[in-house]
Amino acid sequence: MGLRDRLTDALGGAIGGALDIVSDSLEKANTARSEALALSETGKAQPLPPDPPAEDVKSLMVDPYALVDQLGYREKPGSLTYLTLRNMARKVPTFTAVEQTRITQVSAFGQRPEDDRDSGFEIVLRNDEDTMTKPDQKRANAIEDIILQTGTWWDPERDDFRSFLRKLVRDSLELDQACFEIQRDLKDRPTAFYAIDGATVRRADSLPQEPGQFDPEIVRYVQIYDEMVISEFGARDLCFGLRNPRTDIRANGYGYSELEMIIEVITASLWGFQYNKKQFSQGSLVHGILNFKGDVPDSKVDAFRRQWKMMIAGVQNAHKTPMTNVNDLQWIDFQRSNRDMEYSAWMDWLIKVTCAVMQFDPAEINFTYGNTGQASQMFGTNVDDKLKASKDRGLRPLLKDIANWLNVHIIWPLDPNFKLKFTGLDPKDEDKVLEHNKKRSEFIMTVDELRAQEDLDPLPDGQGEVILNSVWLQAKQGAEMGGMGMEGEEGEGEGEDESLGDVTELDQQQEQPDEPDFDQVFGETSEKSLQDADPLRKSRKVRVYEIEL
Known about the structure:
Distance between the termini: 113 Å
Radius of gyration: 44 Å
Structural class: alpha+beta
Strand order of the largest sheet: 1-5-6-7
Number of helices: 18
Shape: flat
Order of helices and strands: HHEHHEHHEEEEEEHHEHEHHHEHHHHHH
Oligomer: single chain
Helix content: 40-55%
């Protein structure tokens, strides 16, 4: 029985009613305080979060009949263990090349960018529409320092951000399980983070929580070593990053790595690689047969064979030379050439499939292919376009996943108003930038606006307030000349322009020359006939104007 019930029984219903009134008042005060906190600076109420659910989720998230280890964690189902996945990644040259290229590309973003075209990361405001102030910029620089040294203090034994990215990407590509631990201070703020072995982390068999409640202290993940739990982590203490999550209840909440997707392709690649390799170590293909003609004793042949093998032998005793002592010898071919078996085309197809699943263009690892079944292309695709498309498919989503993991576990617990953003994904050289600015200056921006983007001063006397477009310049000059003409007419009033006056004087001074005598030239009837044919003949005059500019 609680305190309230005891007071009610002891003092009667009056005290109980008073406690109800106090309880209602406190509840209303808390509600008013929540509504006040929801008001923004403009005075407009922000949407409050909905009430917590009244019941648990009805759907199954994991297999209820799956075998759970006695130590309290769920294993990743499947026949491929973490050790097998890592061995596959090391033994398949194609996957190793793709993985190393991606790791190198991502590690280039583990720095502050030198300019807006350099690869790196920056801390920006979470709302893109907000403008960063000087205090915001100072706060963002402090968070960037924490990310660069993976902690609030510098420790030579701890990885820097570039090394941290390399470790994280390798585990993500091989296991689809990128994990890092977060250390916190007494105020429950992140102070440092460490990349840990993803193959040692398992999902804990946590007890279900009440609806709408989140307990960060509940064990979500465990780290095991030799099948023994050595560490336990809550949801805020460890990042369990997945790029390919699944709804399969038998997956127990684990991801699906690319190596698991192409296990058959990887197996075929290993067989093809081993087949070609064994031709040099254990191959039986011979370059010729040494045959003794005549009656040679077997003892002599055996002695010569031993001496021959001691003097001449292939790599690891491969390609041994057979010897025989017969009068006639026949060769039967049991093996076709690699060209007949289309061995090269088969290996190329395996490389293409591996790169396709990895969202990777083979041109990035120096495998350039055209269209299948086509000897040459009439209009070839630029290699730069292929590389850009490959980065858009594979590198850009990978960087977004990493940024999301860091924002959820590091940036937002430090300050929910900021976020981490990778920049310079599409670096441009100077020639392309100049060409792009040239096109923009012809249609979109003035010269001074472009100079402002490069932190340059505007041109003097308003010379940069133009668009470098011939049509626009002609229209502007025409408008200015038209304005000058209107000013001249207003100054002269009703008087005529001086140039027109000069023309009038010339017109008056230069008399029309005498017309020829048509009676003398053509006879008496010529002038009359001309007038009858053209009544306006007499009114036509030829005038010559001389204009001095």
